[in-house]
Amino acid sequence: xxLKLPGELLQLSRTxxxxxxxxxxxxxxxxxxxxxxxxxxxxxxTNALPDQVMKFxxxxxxxxxxxxxxxxxxxxxxxEVTTFRVEGDYxxxxxxxxxxxxxxxxxxxxxxxxxxxxxxYDMEEKRFYDPFxxxxxxxxxxxxxxxDPGARFQEDGLRMLRAARIxxxxxxxxxxQTVAAMAAHAALIDQISAERIRxxxxxxxxxxxxxxxxxxxxxxxxxxxxxxxxxAGIGVVQPSLHCFDVYTHSLAACDAAPRGNLHVRxxxxxxxxxxPVTRGEGPHHEPTFYGHEKEGARLTAEILTRLRFPxxxxxxxTHLVAQHMFNYDQSWTDAAVRRFIRRVGLDALDDxxxxxxxxxxxxxxxxxxxxxxxxFRERIKKIVAESQVFSARDLAVDxxxxxxxxxxxxxREIGLLLEFLLEGVLDDPEMNSPDRLLEAAKRFLRERLHPxxx
Length: 454
What we know:
alpha+beta, Beta Polymerase, domain 2, Hydrophobic Seed Protein, 4 domains, 7-stranded mixed β-sheet, two-stranded antiparallel ribbon, about 50% helix
């Protein structure tokens, strides 16, 4: 099989070979192209030393030169070029204590994680070099560690999460020896930085079915070390409408959430994380989870903070978790719908509705028609088109107007007045005129904030 490669990459290969050096395409790009998937990143291995590579190309960044890696920029593309190398012990289970450059591709491939990632492609000869039979594992859809899987995981504990992530991305299974080594070495994950764990976790959530990877983490004892709050849902029975326990439902909801929307996938995975903590029993012995959305939002914030997610993402996801229990019916007044929009925020509505669809699909693992949700969405569209007042910012008067017209100083009373006026406009949008708002503010100030003494 001949791989179709970018012209810039072929030019890089010819340049190295013209100077007498070997050059192979390696890693995930070879794997993905053999699977007829689009390759995103192209990694090159060569027996040229980093300083030699830097002489052959005009634009080179010494990104990891101490480990033999430089980044070559060619046109709009960039390629990581790494010298063939073997690695010493991994005393921190993350970085090699030493790196030794070698002259052969065999030793370089032997240090890699999985057989399917240890296939090299000679771009000039147009042939594959596959000493660990990774091509056969690709055909069998198997993820297998190279050599002793325990040794590979001791070198870098993150490889255990990578196995789960690749399984989720490709819908592959992991061979039993590799799974057993993951379980035996699960404690190594405690030594991996939160940022590296987060990055693998995000890639897992971006896969077609995150549940494949998350289930493998559960089976090997890794999930309880990374996400104990999610593991706590295992065996937590739900009301009769649900087919699954809290944990399995959460994974099914995550799978059903839009693949390209990380915020909704995170919210779907954690939307019920507060249920184990709030579990109770109703009058007929049915399980209850009163207030689980608030507790879930708190726990979600703790999880995402622990994994070093950005503050804005944490705010967005926890807001979705906190709001996911809305219970619309057609008896809602337009004022009630406007208050819902105000509480949720216009920007969060689409994500919240996506979360609701994922939540419902996760009840028994299949999408279900939601005509009431569709009706609610249409009502919201109509109301938004008719009224643009959903926060104090949208009022026809602001704090400065109140200070000037009412003669009161800046402070807490201004906020109370604006909140009162907003509530009035949510009830009656036609009230949003300066004259009516100022009159209402004066009356509220006189009767509620500064009532005359008897």
